[in-house]
Amino acid sequence: MASRRVPRARRQQDIDSVSNMSGETARPGLSQDESAFESLSEQPWRPVPEIPLPTNDGTSYADFSDANIELTVPGSQEVRVMLAIDYGTTHTGLAFMHQTTERQPLFPNDLHVHQDWEGGNTGRKIPSAISYSKTLHGCKQWGNDIDEQHSRVLQWTKLELHPRKPLEELRALKDSLSGLRLLEALQQNEQAGIDNDIPLHITRSPARIVEEFLSRVAREYYLHMRRESPNAIGEGIVPLDMVVTHPAEWPYEAINKTYRAVTAAFDKLMFPTRRNIYLVPEPEACAVFTVQDMIAFPAGNQTLVPGDCFVVCDAGGGTVDLVTYRFNKLEPLEMEKIGTISGGYCGATFIDQAFIKWIESRTNGIGITSKDVGTGGHFVLEPKGTTILKKFEVMKRKFSGTEANTLTLPSNVQLDASVTNGVPGLLPISAEDMRSFFEFSITETIDLLSRHFIETDVTGGRILHIFMSGGMSQNDYVFNRVKKWAKTHNGEISVQRPTDGWTAVVQGAVLSGMGIGANNAVLAQPCPRHFGIMGAEVINPRKHRDPSIKIIQDVVHGGNVTLNQITWLIHKNDLVLPDQPIIATCQMACTYYQDHIANGSITHVIFCATDTDNPPSHSLSKDNNEIAALEIRIDKIPRSACVTITTPGGTAYIEAKMTVKMTVHYSGKFDVNVMCDEQTMASYPEGKHNPFC
Description:
This protein has a domain at 8-58 and 527-684. Helices cover 24% and strands 27% of the residues. The chain contains eleven helices and 32 strands. Strand 30 (652-664) and strand 31 (670-676) form a beta hairpin. Helix 3 crosses helix 4 (252-265) and helix 6 (348-360) runs antiparallel to helix 8. The longest helix is centred in the middle third of the chain and has 28 residues, at 431-458. It is globular. Residues 1-50 are annotated as: Disordered.
């Protein structure tokens, strides 16, 4: 056996395959010698993939500077349109501002909230809802124009962008399997598929649902601009910059999914002049609008004093987000962020969830959410559920703390025997019941406020103003509970709402992007390529169905494997941020015999990168792609990382676990490191290129 060993993937004809790995365990071995390289008698490295997402070190994804922010329009002046989108859990808003070379844009006169929505709706927001059901009334099946009497409606999808915990993931998988069984039955009965409402939502990921909803929003905006400002759209006319909002404490995974959905929905076929995309946390955008709103209407800022601190509480549908600032100057206005932004999952949808749990315990056959076809892990409302939640929404908005209500039930829904004070078809809801629905959201909101007061006090500041915004803050019961808490905390604290708190975030996002009020919007960069690791996979009949796949027997552990599969760790057009590169890791296993250590054998990790939009599952050529082999000496692998395994036939071999870490920086540069027991075994670009490519 020769002293130098190379993995099978170094042959050109074997570097013709790439795939996303399914998590099957395969162990790469080493070739016997250079001549054996032609025999395909061994397998190369094989990644055992973890979730291919950047690590989260617990810090905020964007480290906005704590330096003073002068609330002025930037000196540079150019023609452009600044469009902001606030994709919310319950509602979505659009706002925009035109900038010309003739004059600087003014607030509030030049800031426009989009109101020309599908279905003749002129509201300042559109419901974040979509349905894949057939309609009997020609409805568009999204936003306000959904055939609610005959449709399953997907809502609150934004909450699903956050990575699920293992138990939640298992529940979602169970729901998906339920729906897939129905699809399988429909495939066997073609007429049933024609006659029935096929639940397409179970085939959609949350990210795809968001993208498809936002694509409809994008089309609405395009049609509006073509009617109202045709010179602002089209090839080579006016640049379009965008600002995308996100909750305060959202992980990279969720922000990246939102970013990708927006870029796909507002594509360059429809918007050829789309240029920059910025990101801004929702509470910071809200703070910018709130302060500017107070400036525009002087009656609201008579109590402001330099040195005062204020906290903005953006109480939306899914999350409640907070940020604290200090007024350093009033004329000209200058403010400074104090501490960190924070947030929690306690928005208005949690009031709805408490109501749903309550009504299901007091009725029989209510059927608010979809259970018969599976949800795919989504929140799916049945027609009855949509009707009931709309009725409750009216009660919720008007509730001030003392009102009792009576809910009219659908004809086929009966009261539970435990309800003794109702009549058939009518469900009484006491004021105490209503207050119980609100309790979790209010308690958590006050807890978040209390933490900001403590944090600010530690730094020597005093919060004397609470500015409430967002849909939940428009409720008088919520607003008055916060006022009551503030009064007991300190009688000097004022609690106020801006003139348009419901759209404060999307309007503040426009101002942030324009630099009016704060320069806190971060310019996003798309990842330029796909980055991955090539290896082998143990054969899985459910995955490896392609008859052209070459199957070999591993020379070390004897299992059947297929070569040159790729785990794509980082994807083209993933979001890259200035202060947080994308970091992805992948666990790998290398198997070898004891004599490979003694004779100085070498193995390789095969790195791949491509800028194609849809990388193939295999057959990746070297043309216009980057393929490199990172060289690792077997005798340098730490013994602490090795375990000895004995096959059923009695042959002993060694397995070493390693971690591949890929990093893509804001500049577009990247690096790859292979680690074993915290020691660096190989790196690239410093690593050696594959000479067989």
